[in-house]
Design brief:
Layout lengths: L9 H23 L19 H34 L4 H23 L6 H28 L7 H26 L15 H23 L1 H5 L1
Helix pairs in contact: 1-2, 1-6, 2-3, 3-4, 4-5, 4-6, 5-6
Length: 224
């Protein structure tokens, strides 16, 4: 299916499918191995212990690379469109690319430094990845509106902005609730101290992560 897509549409399609598989495979292995509870663990919790840690690290590193390639192609696409209709400043497009690449670097840090091994570095990487990602998709949503109606339909713009708003809303409580957790662990069980904070923060984290995935899914048509 990917090979039959015209243009470079296979790139965001591969990014979406690969990233989804990275999250789901790591989660399934971690749950089956008894390393995490099935009910909404942190994404990083599902890639902390062997054997899922190796799979998680490898697949997230590839996802970061595919993300960087997708963002660069998107940058080139907007630049070329902008030459014809001048709907956005080039500096804004460059800034959006730089923010996106920062998010990819954050993903690399998350994949390289395990949550229980180097928690402070891991948390910084996660904050950079999610924070930069939210800013990136918001900027891209604004750019999409500016390119209407010549280069995008308003329906696609509305979908992108809706995903951006949901991701922004989920990002804030994710950080707030995570900051209230007083211990670093992955085997959470209902009823123990700080479990509620962990549970709510994890829900928000999964919401933001799949918000990114659905956002890049909307790039497929543009990349054709």
């Amino acid at each position: 299916m990917l090979c039959c897509m015209p243009g470079v549409a296979f790139v965001p399609a591969l990014l979406v499918s690969w990233s989804s598989a990275a999250f789901i495979i790591s989660y399934v292995i971690a749950v089956l191995a008894g390393h995490v509870e099935p009910l909404v663990p942190y994404i990083s919790d599902t890639g902390t212990k062997p054997p899922e840690s190796g799979i998680f690290g490898f697949m997230i590193n590839i996802s970061a690379l595919l993300g960087a390639i997708t963002m660069y192609i998107r940058y080139l696409l907007v630049e070329k469109q902008n030459e014809l209709s001048h709907f956005v400043r080039s500096s804004c497009n460059i800034f959006s690319l730089c923010i996106g690449l920062m998010g990819c670097i954050g993903m690399e840090i998350v994949a390289t430094f395990q949550e229980l091994s180097v928690p402070s570095v891991h948390d910084i990487g996660a904050l950079v990845a999610f924070g930069s990602g939210v800013v990136y998709i918001t900027l891209q949503s604004i750019i999409s509106y500016k390119s209407c109606p010549r280069w995008n339909t308003y329906f696609v713009c509305h979908v992108r902005m809706a995903i951006s708003v949901v991701s922004c809303i989920a990002f804030i409580p994710m950080i707030v609730f995570a900051s209230q957790i007083s211990m670093t662990k992955i085997d959470w069980t209902p009823g123990e101290k700080d479990y509620t904070y962990h549970f709510l923060s994890a829900i928000c984290e999964w919401t933001v992560a799949f918000g990114f995935i659905f956002f890049f899914l909307t790039f497929i048509r543009d990349f054709q």
